[in-house]
Write a structure and sequence with these properties.
Pfam families: UDG. The chain has 275 residues and is α/β, with parallel strands linked by helices. The chain is built from 11 helices and 6 strands.
C-alpha cells in the first residue's frame, strides 16, 4: 500500500488556486474555521437574529434611497418645468429639447422626434414614443403605423398637413419597450409646454402611454378609449381629449380598427361643431 505524501505548496500558489476557482473575495477580516464552529441552538438563534437585523437595516436603507431618489426626481422635474415655462415658441422648445441631456433615452436614440404636421391646427395627435423608422428619420409616425395613421386621417377628410403630431416621449426606447414612469416624468414638462404652445382645440391620445399621460393613472386603453376626457393646460385652458388605440396596436389587432374609426368619427363631429 502506497503512502500518501503531502506536497509542499506556497501561500502564493494557494491563493492563485483559490482565485482560479472563483474564490477571490474576502468575506471577513479574519479567517473562520467552520469545522470547529459551534452549532449550538444558541448560535443558530443568534445567526437568525443577525440576518433579520441585516434585512431590516437593508430595508431601511432602501426606503431612504427611494425617498432620496423621489426627492431628487421632483427637484429635477421642477427645474425642467421652470426652464420650459419661459419658452415662448415651439422652435425654442425644440432647441431646448435637443440640448437636454437629462433623459438616458437620448443616449441610445439616433434622433429627437419633436413633431410633424402643422402647429396651430385644431387637432393635435399625441403618440407614445418613436419606433425604429421614426428614430431613423426623426419624424413621428412615419413607419407602418404612420402609414395606417395617414389612412385613418383620410377617412375623416384630413391629412398630416391638417393636424399636429407629437409624442409623450421624443426618443425611442431601446427595443421599442414601454417608457418607464421616470422617463415619462422627465419628458412631461416638454410635451405639456408643446401642447400649450401648439394650442389645439382637440387632442387625440394614441395608445396607453399617451392616455396615462393625460389621466395620471394606470388605466388601460381598452377601458378608456372612446370616452372623452378633459386636459387642462398650465394657463387653465381646457381641451377635450379622445383616447383611442395606437396604430401599431391596430396592425397587430386589425379587428379593433372599427372601434378606432368610430373614435375618429367622434373627433370629426366635434371638429365640425367648432366655431
Amino acid at each position: 500500500m502506497s503512502q500518501i505524501t503531502h506536497c509542499p505548496i506556497s501561500y502564493e500558489e494557494l491563493l492563485n488556486f483559490y482565485k482560479e476557482s472563483g474564490a477571490d473575495t474576502a468575506l471577513t477580516d479574519t479567517p473562520v474555521n467552520h469545522f470547529h464552529k459551534s452549532h449550538s441552538a444558541e448560535n443558530e438563534v443568534k445567526q437568525i437574529s443577525d440576518i433579520s437585523h441585516n434585512k431590516q437595516t437593508l430595508s431601511s436603507l432602501e426606503q431612504k434611497s427611494t425617498s432620496s431618489y423621489e426627492s431628487d426626481k421632483m427637484r429635477f422635474k421642477d427645474s425642467i418645468e421652470e426652464m420650459v415655462k419661459n419658452i415662448k415658441t415651439l422652435d425654442e422648445l425644440k432647441s431646448a429639447l435637443l440640448s437636454f441631456d437629462g433623459c438616458s433615452l437620448k443616449l441610445t436614440a439616433k434622433n429627437t422626434c419633436f413633431s410633424d404636421g402643422t402647429a396651430g391646427s385644431p387637432l393635435m395627435l399625441i403618440g407614445e414614443a418613436p419606433g425604429r423608422e421614426e428614430d431613423i428619420q426623426g419624424i413621428p409616425f412615419v413607419g407602418r403605423a404612420g402609414m395606417l395613421l395617414n389612412k385613418i386621417l383620410a377617412s375623416i377628410g384630413l391629412t398630416r398637413e391638417n393636424v399636429y403630431i407629437a409624442n409623450t416621449i421624443p426618443w425611442r426606447p431601446p427595443g421599442n419597450r414601454t417608457p418607464t414612469p421616470r422617463e415619462i416624468a422627465l419628458c412631461r414638462p416638454f410635451i405639456e409646454r408643446q401642447i400649450q404652445l401648439a394650442n389645439p382645440r382637440v387632442l387625440v391620445a394614441l395608445g396607453g402611454t399617451a392616455v396615462q399621460f393625460f389621466t395620471g393613472t394606470q388605466s388601460g386603453i381598452i377601458r378608456m378609449r372612446g370616452k372623452w376626457l378633459t386636459y387642462e393646460t398650465a394657463d387653465n385652458i381646457k381641451i377635450p381629449v379622445m383616447p383611442t388605440f395606437h396604430p401599431a396596436y391596430l396592425l397587430r389587432t386589425p379587428s379593433q380598427k372599427k372601434l378606432t374609426w368610430t373614435d375618429f368619427l367622434e373627433v370629426k363631429s366635434f371638429l365640425s361643431n367648432l366655431t
